[in-house]
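cron nightly-structures :: item 1 of 1
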Amino acid sequence: MNRKLLFLFVVVMYCFPFRSSAQMIDSMMKVYAARFPQEKLYLQFDKKAYNPGERIWYKAYLFSGFDPSPFSKNLYTELYDAYGNLILRNTSPLVESTSVGSFDLPSSFDGTRIVAAR
């Protein structure tokens, strides 16, 4: 009888804290997701590679989950060279979670082609 009571006590003490903490973590994750929604940006380029003096055209799609994102109003884009130096910066409005823009590559660029992200 004493061993059965001890076994039951151990099982109850083992299961009870995990159940309450799991519910607390789940509710905290929901609060965090509601307060700080994550957005994902998808970029579409007109070509795969660019040479100096060419114009890079792009279109951006911003999503929050599976739906267009209603949160951000501007798209900030930057173009860096292979060494991490900022070449160009652009700001464009997001209309219905999409934006279009372009970068004019300087003709004095060092001759290395820029390859668009895949």
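cron nightly-structures :: done
Residues 73 and 94 are 5 Å apart (CA to CA).
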